[in-house]
Design brief:
The complex is a heterodimer. Chain A has 7 helices and 12 strands. Chain A is of the alpha+beta class. Chain A folds into 3 domains: about 80 residues; about 45 residues, no CATH class; about 140 residues, 3-layer Sandwich (Rieske Iron-sulfur Protein). The longest helix of chain A has about 35 residues. Chain A starts with about 30 loop residues before the first helix and ends in a 19-residue tail after the last strand. By secondary structure, chain B is mostly helical. In chain B, about 60% of the residues lie in helices and about 5% in strands. In chain B, the strands form 5 sheets. A two-stranded antiparallel ribbon of chain B has the order 1-5. A two-stranded antiparallel ribbon of chain B has the order 2-3. The longest helix of chain B is centred in the C-terminal third of the chain and has 40 residues. Chain B is globular and about 95 Å long. Classes of the chains: A alpha+beta, B mainly alpha. At the A-B interface, helix 3, strand 1 and helix 7 of A face helix 5, helix 7, helix 8, strand 5 and helix 10 of B. Strand 1 of chain A pairs antiparallel with strand 5 of chain B.
Chain lengths: ~350, ~550
C-alpha cells in the first residue's frame, strides 16, 4: 500500500516561509501531584470525598421520595419532594462528575502526546479495487448491459413510494369552505364567554368590553373549533366617536359594535382593548386595530381589518346577530377572497 | 483471529474479556480506540454538552411517557391542584398536571426534561458557532457540517413538538400561530393545515400526532444523525487549535483511556448534575398557571421557548400591507416574508462551507483550526449572521422590552426593523476591523516582541521602551496560519472569461484584499537585524518602522 498522501491544489493560499521551524509540542508543565507523593495522596482523598458526596446525595434523593408523600390539596408536599429529590440527585451526579474530572486532572498523565493523521481519501490501490468490485458486480448482474431491466427498475422505484404518500390522504378532510363560515346566523344571541349568558343591550355601558360567543356554542359538538372562528369582542363607544362606513351603518346598535376576536395575522385572540384610544391589540405579534375606524390595521404585521359582525336587538332587548360574518375571519389564506 | 489469547487463570475480568472477545473480537476495538488521541480545549466541550443533554432528554422523556396520555378527549379535572378542580380540559393537559402534582418525582422530571431541551438547543447552537468561527467545517468536514446543521433543525423540531404536548393555553396559542402560518402558504396551505390538525383547528388529533413526532420520529432521526456525526469524528479525528507541534497531519492531545474516559465520562455527570440542580430549584413552564387551551383567552407577554424566538420575531418584524393579490387569490406576505427570510438564512448557513471553498479553491484537508482573527472576513460574516439571528430573536420580545423599559411599542418595533438591516452591516464592519487590528498586533509582537513597560534611558538621553522577544512556542502560534490572496480575472483554457470567474474574483477581493499576511522569514530577519542598532542609534525611526499595516510578503 502506498503511504504517499495525495497533494491537493491549494487554490488562493499563499506560501510564505515561516520565520522559524515548528518548535514542536510545548514541554509538559509538572504538577504538584507529579512531584510529591503527599500531594498525590491528598488528591486521592479529595476524589474519594467527592464520590462519597455522590453516595450521600443518592440517599437524600431516596429519602426525599419517601419523606414527602402526595397529600391531596397540599402543594407543599410536591414542592418538598421536587426540591429534595432534585437536590439529592444533583449532588449524586455532581459528586461523580467532579470526582472523575478531578481524578483525571490531578492524577492521570497530562503530557500531550501526538498521533499521526491520514487523509480521508483511500489509497489509490483501495480505490482501484473498489472500482474493480463495482465493475465485476455490474458485469455479473448485467445492470449496464440490460437496458430493459434497468429502465423498468427505475420506473418501478419511482412509483412504488407514491402509495405511501397517498395513504396519508385521510389525515384531514378536504377543506371545502368551512373556513369561510362560522356558527353565527341571523338571530343568534350574543352570549358571554365562557358562561353562555345572553347579553342585553342595556347592560353594555359605554367603554365596557364583552368577550362574546354565539348562543349554543357550549353545547355544540365541535366547541373549540367553532370557538376558534366565532369568538367576538363587543364594545360600546360613544356613537359620535364611531366613524362608521355608511354602508355598514346599521351593523351596530347605538354605539355597540361587534368585531371578530380572531387576529387576521395568524389567528391569536385580539384580547386587549384600550378604552381611551379605541385600539385593539393582539398580544402575540402586536397587530393593532382601530375599533372606531372599522378595525383597520394601524400597526403590526396584520394586513386585513378585523371582520365586523352585524348586530341588532331582538324583541326582548337581547343582542343578536343579523347574519354570519360577511367575510372570512382569522388568518389570510390562498383562496380567501374567492367566492364559493 | 491471530490475536486469540488464552484466558489467564483466575481473574473474573480476564475471563469475561476472553468470553466476549471469542464472540465479538472486541479486543480489536479496544486496541484501535483505547488510546485514540483527543485534543483538549474548553470550546470542544460545547458539542459534548449538547450530546449529554440529549441523553438526559431521552432518560427523563422515557419517564414522562409512562405517565403522559396524548389524548384530546375532554375530562373534568379531579387532581390535587385545587384552583383547576372541576375545570374542563383535555386528558393530555390533565395528565400533565398529574405528572406535576400527583406523581412523586414527576415535576422534577418534567423540569429536567424542559431545562435539558433548552440546554440541548443552546449547546448545539454554540457548538455550531465554534465550528464556524474556527473554520472546522473545511475539507474534509463539509458533510459533517451538514449533518450538524440537520441536527440543529431537528433539535428545534423536537423542542417545538414537545412544547405543544401538554395542551395548555400557552402552547395552544403557539399551535394557533403555526396553523395561521401554514394556512398562508399559497395553494396548499389550507390542505396542509387540515392534514395536520385532522380538520379545523384545533381538532382532536394534533396532540397525539405531535406525540408520535416527538417521541419516535424526531428522536430516531436525532439518534441516527448523532451516530453519523460521531462516526465522521472518528474517521477524521478531532481538529486541534493552531500552535506549536500541531499540524494538519497529526493530532495532539490526551488518550481516550484513561484521561478522556474520566474527563468526558465525568463531564456527562456534571452536565446532568447541573441540569438537575437547576430543575430542582427553578420552575420552568408552569402549565398550571396557564390553564387548559381555549381559543378565546390569551395572556399578554406570551413568549415561545428561546429557540423558536427568532421565528416568532421574524413574524413580528414583518412589514404589513404587502399582501400580494393574484386574481382572486391572495399570498399573505405578513406570513410568507418571515418564512422566506428564515429559510434563506438557514440555507445560507448550510451552504457556507461550499461558498467559502468556491472562493478559495483550496482543496487541501484542514485539521488545524483557524484562530478567528486569522480569517477576518469569515469571522465578520459569522458575526453578521449571529447579529441577524439575535435581532430576530430579540424581536420576539418587543412587547416585554417596551413594557420593562417604558418605551413605546411602536418605536421598539421600528428600531428592531432598522437594526435587522443595519445591525449585521455594523457587526460585519466592526468585527472585520477588530480582526485585522488583532492580526496587526500579532505581527508587531512577532516582529518586535512584547511591550514590557520598562522604560530605559539611553546614554545620549533618549528614552525608549524595552521590547521583549517572545519564546519560540508563542512566536510559532503568532506566525503559523493559513493565508490567502485575492485572485485576478483570468481567461480559461478556451481563452474566455466566464461570468463565474468574474464573480469569484470580485468575491475573493472582498475576502482577502485587506489581508494581513503572516510574518515571513525575510521580514523577521530584517526586523531583528535592524532591531539591535535601533535601540542605540536611531530610536526615533522606530515607531514608523513598527507600523506596517499593509505589509505584503512575497
Amino acid at each position: 500500500m502506498s503511504e504517499l498522501e495525495k497533494v491537493y491544489q491549494a487554490g488562493l493560499a499563499t506560501d510564505i516561509e515561516r520565520p522559524i521551524k515548528d518548535p514542536g509540542i510545548e514541554p509538559h508543565r509538572v504538577r504538584m501531584t507529579d512531584k510529591s507523593e503527599q500531594h498525590a495522596r491528598t488528591a486521592e482523598k479529595q476524589v474519594a470525598l467527592l464520590f462519597g458526596v455522590s453516595f450521600v446525595g443518592a440517599i437524600i434523593a431516596i429519602w426525599g421520595y419517601f419523606a414527602f408523600p402526595i397529600v391531596a390539596g397540599d402543594l407543599s408536599a410536591t414542592r418538598n419532594n421536587t426540591l429534595w429529590m432534585g437536590v439529592g440527585m444533583a449532588l449524586s451526579l455532581l459528586g461523580i462528575g467532579f470526582g472523575a474530572v478531578h481524578w483525571a486532572k490531578t492524577l492521570m498523565p497530562d503530557a500531550e502526546v501526538e498521533e499521526a493523521r491520514h487523509q480521508a481519501r483511500s489509497t489509490d490501490e483501495a480505490r482501484a479495487q473498489a472500482v474493480e468490485v463495482i465493475k465485476l458486480a455490474d458485469g455479473e448482474s448485467g445492470f449496464s448491459r440490460r437496458k430493459l431491466i434497468r429502465r423498468s427498475l427505475y420506473g418501478a422505484l419511482a412509483v412504488f413510494p407514491i402509495p405511501a404518500l397517498v395513504i396519508f390522504g385521510d389525515l384531514g378532510p378536504v377543506v371545502g369552505d368551512s373556513l369561510k363560515h362560522t356558527m353565527w346566523k341571523k338571530g343568534t344571541r350574543l352570549t358571554k364567554d365562557p358562561t353562555g349568558i345572553p347579553i342585553k343591550a342595556s347592560d353594555v355601558t359605554i367603554g365596557s368590553v364583552f368577550h362574546v360567543i354565539p348562543e349554543g356554542l357550549n353545547e355544540s359538538e365541535h366547541k373549540l373549533e367553532e370557538k376558534a372562528k366565532a369568538s367576538v369582542l363587543l364594545v360600546r363607544v360613544n356613537p359620535e366617536e364611531l366613524n362608521e362606513d355608511p354602508a355598514k351603518a346599521d351593523w351596530s346598535y347605538d354605539g355597540i359594535v361587534a368585531y371578530s376576536k380572531i387576529c387576521t395575522h395568524v389567528g391569536c385572540p385580539v384580547a386587549l382593548y384600550e378604552q381611551h384610544t379605541h385600539h385593539l391589540l393582539c398580544p402575540c405579534h402586536q397587530s393593532t386595530f382601530d375599533l372606531a375606524n372599522h378595525c383597520e390595521v394601524i400597526f403590526g404585521p396584520a394586513s386585513r381589518p378585523l371582520p365586523q359582525l352585524p348586530i341588532a336587538v331582538d324583541a326582548e332587548g337581547y343582542l343578536v346577530a343579523q347574519s354570519d360574518f360577511l367575510e372570512p375571519v382569522g388568518p389570510t389564506f390562498w383562496d380567501i377572497r374567492k367566492e364559493s | 483471529m491471530s490475536t486469540a489469547t488464552e484466558a489467564k487463570s483466575g481473574g473474573f475480568l480476564s475471563g469475561t474479556a476472553n468470553y466476549l472477545d471469542e464472540r465479538t473480537s472486541i479486543a480489536v476495538a479496544v486496541k484501535t480506540f483505547g488510546r485514540k488521541i483527543f485534543p483538549d480545549h474548553w470550546s470542544f466541550m460545547l458539542g459534548e454538552v449538547a450530546l449529554y443533554s440529549f441523553v438526559v432528554l431521552v432518560l427523563s422523556g422515557t419517564f414522562l411517557t409512562f405517565f403522559f396520555q396524548p389524548s384530546m378527549a375532554e375530562v373534568h379535572y379531579d387532581g390535587s391542584y385545587a384552583p383547576l378542580k372541576g375545570a374542563e380540559m383535555s386528558i393530555a393537559y390533565a395528565s400533565s398536571l398529574d405528572i406535576s402534582f400527583d406523581i412523586r418525582g414527576g415535576l422534577i422530571m418534567r423540569q429536567v426534561h424542559h431545562w435539558a431541551a433548552l440546554l440541548f438547543v443552546s449547546a448545539a447552537g454554540l457548538h455550531m458557532m465554534r465550528v464556524f468561527f474556527t473554520g472546522a467545517f473545511r475539507k474534509p468536514r463539509e458533510l459533517n457540517w451538514i449533518v450538524g446543521f440537520v441536527l440543529f433543525i431537528l433539535g428545534m423540531a423536537a423542542g417545538f413538538s414537545g412544547y405543544s404536548l401538554p395542551d395548555d393555553l400557552l402552547s395552544g396559542n403557539g399551535l394557533r400561530i403555526i396553523d395561521g402560518m401554514v394556512k398562508g402558504i399559497p395553494f396548499i396551505g389550507t390542505a396542509i393545515s387540515s392534514g395536520l390538525f385532522g380538520g379545523e383547528f384545533p381538532g382532536t388529533e394534533i396532540v397525539a400526532r405531535l406525540y408520535s413526532v416527538h417521541i419516535m420520529i424526531v428522536p430516531a432521526l436525532i439518534i441516527l444523525f448523532i451516530g453519523l456525526h460521531l462516526m465522521m469524528v472518528v474517521i477524521h479525528k478531532h481538529t486541534h487549535y493552531s500552535g506549536p507541534g500541531k499540524r494538519d497531519d497529526n493530532v495532539v492531545g490526551y488518550p481516550l483511556a484513561p484521561v478522556y474516559v474520566a474527563k468526558a465520562g465525568g463531564f456527562f455527570f456534571l452536565v446532568f448534575g447541573v441540569i438537575m440542580a437547576i430543575a430542582a430549584t427553578f420552575t420552568i413552564n408552569p402549565i398550571w398557571n396557564y390553564g387548559p387551551y381555549d381559543p378565546s383567552p390569551v395572556s399578554a407577554g406570551t413568549q415561545p421557548d428561546w429557540y423558536i424566538g427568532w421565528l416568532d420575531g421574524a413574524l413580528r418584524l414583518a412589514p404589513s400591507n404587502l399582501d400580494v393579490n393574484i386574481g382572486e387569490y391572495t399570498i399573505p406576505m405578513g406570513v410568507m416574508l418571515p418564512l422566506i427570510v428564515s429559510l434563506v438564512f438557514l440555507a445560507a448557513v448550510a451552504a457556507y462551507p461550499f461558498i467559502e471553498n468556491w472562493v478559495t479553491q483550496d482543496k487541501r484537508e484542514h485539521h488545524v483550526l483557524d484562530r478567528p482573527r486569522n480569517a477576518p472576513t469569515r469571522t465578520a460574516i459569522g458575526a453578521a449572521g449571529a447579529t441577524f439571528y439575535a435581532v430576530l430573536w430579540a424581536g420576539a420580545s418587543t412587547d416585554l422590552i417596551a413594557i420593562n423599559f417604558q418605551v413605546s411599542l411602536n418605536s421598539v418595533l421600528t428600531t428592531m426593523q432598522i437594526l435587522l438591516i443595519i445591525g449585521p452591516i455594523i457587526a460585519y464592519w466592526v468585527t472585520k476591523r477588530a480582526c485585522l487590528s488583532l492580526q496587526r498586533k500579532d505581527r508587531e509582537i512577532a516582529l518586535h516582541g512584547r511591550e514590557t513597560g520598562r522604560v530605559v534611558r539611553l546614554p545620549h538621553g533618549e528614552y525608549i521602551e524595552v521590547h521583549e522577544p517572545v519564546d519560540e512556542y508563542e512566536l510559532w502560534k503568532l506566525v503559523d496560519f493559513k493565508d490567502y490572496q485575492p485572485t485576478m480575472v483570468r481567461p480559461n483554457k478556451n481563452g474566455k472569461i466566464t461570468f463565474g470567474t468574474r464573480i469569484r474574483a470580485a468575491v475573493s477581493k472582498i475576502y482577502f484584499e485587506d489581508r494581513i499576511a503572516p510574518v515571513s522569514k525575510t521580514e523577521f530577519e530584517l526586523a531583528h537585524h535592524e532591531h539591535a542598532p535601533a535601540i542605540e542609534e536611531k530610536p526615533a525611526a522606530k515607531p514608523k518602522a513598527k507600523r506596517k499595516p499593509k505589509a505584503i510578503a512575497k
